Amino acid sequence: MKVSSYTQYYIRKLLQQQADRLGYPHTGIGLRGCLQRDLTLILSQHYSPTELQGRIHELERLVELHRKVESAFQSGHSLTQIEQKIFWFLGLKFLALVSDLGLEVLPEAETARFVFLMEQQPQQGIRYQTRLYGQVLELGADYDLAACGLLFMLNSRQIPFRITASEAQHKIWIDLRSPAYLWLLKQNLGSSQVA
Nearest CA to 103 among 18, 169, 41, 38? Predict the structure, then answer.
């Protein structure tokens, strides 16, 4: 069984709309693959052959449900939940999390990069608008428990931070004026690569 042409079109349109809402670059990691590759192939990378047929059927059902809810002008929680499930099925778990938290993702190319010394070690930084940020974590498109924990913590404590995306990775940057930057820089965040 293959994902229907209509479902592929609908999901790509939905992903582009979501990317626009988040400010997420269309060439960003993970999203670029879903916009350019056959969704059946993407699903086959995430699910075993025995699971694949059920996942495709569920994805088709979710798209139809999304279309009906959207055409009935019912917005809000149920539409968002359907979108999150679609992103989750496609392996775009980080995008689903960022969307759920209401975070903005910047194209890395739109930031001014610099290198600075912190405790005699070179560190990566960006300038965005009037603030300077230091990198604390970089990760791929896959769901990363350390990154999720970090995003929840930063968001709940209202620590100023930014997320950037390039074709190869996501990066999390914290405002250099925040005491959390130095503390997080020294922490071991598990399997993720710390700057």
Answer: 18
Angle, to 10 degrees, between the axis of helix 77-89 and the axis of helix 49-71?
150
Dihedrals phi, psi of 181, to nearest 5 degrees: -60, -55
Closest by CA position to 143, among listed 151, 135, 154: 151
The H or E element spanning position 45 is helix 39-46
Owner of token pair 């929840």: 152
Q: Look at residue 191 and give its three-state secondary structure.
A: coil
User: Which of 177, 178, 150, 145 shows the shortest CA–CA distance to 163?
Assistant: 150
Grouping H, G, I as helix, E, B as strand and the rest as coil, residue 7 is helix
Measured CA to CA, the distance from residue 145 to residue 118 in angstroms comes to: 27
Give the C-alpha separation, 5 to 192, whole Å: 36
pTM exceeds 0.90 for this model = no
pLDDT digit string, tens, across residues 10-34: 999 988 888 777 777 766 666 766 7
Structure tokens at 49: 């052959």
The average pLDDT across 94-98 equals 75
The strand pair at 161-165 and 131-139 is best described as unpaired
pLDDT in tens, 67-78: 988 887 665 558
Q: Which two tokens stand for residue 145?
A: 């428990």
